[in-house]
What does this fold into?
Amino acid sequence: MTQQETIDAIMRVMERAFDPFWREAWSRQQVADSFMLSTTDALLLDAQGAIAQNPEDTIGFVLSRHVLDEEELLLVAILPEYRGRKLGKRLIEHSAAASRDRGAARMFLEMRANNPAERIYRAAGFERIGMREDYYRTADGQKLDAITFGKDLTK
It folds into this structure.
C-alpha cells in the first residue's frame, strides 16, 4: 500500500470517526506532514480485526510515532458503525505488537478527560500517569483537561 493510499484510508475513517465538536481530527495536511518524519507509522485495521491489506477495507487506524524505546499513539479511530465489537482494543494490541517489534518498551497516549475511549485504553493495559489542565478546547470554547496514559510493553 502506498503512502498516499494510507493517507486516503486514514482520512476516510477520520472524517466519520471524530465529532467536530471535540476538535480532535487532523487535517489531511497534518497527516501528510507527520509522514515526513521517518518515526511515524500507521496501522490500518479491517472489519475482521486484522491488519488491512487493501485501503478500501480500512475501518480503523492508529497513527503513531516512535523515538528510541517509546511509542506515542497520536490518533486512534474506529468507524462509528464498527464500535462496540472490541475492534479498538484489537487495533491497540496490533499497534503494541508492532511497537515492541520496533524496540519500544513503553507506549503513551494523551486524550481529553471525558473521552469514552478511556475504557478501551484501560482494557488494553494503559494506566493514567499524568494530566494537563485546560489543555483542549471544544468548538464552543469549553476547556478540557488532557490525561496522559502509559503502558509497559515489556510485560
Summary: The chain has one domain: 3-152. Residues 3-17 form the longest helix (15 residues). The domain at 3-152 is CATH 3.40.630.30 (Aminopeptidase). The CA atoms of residues 45 and 51 lie 5 Å apart.
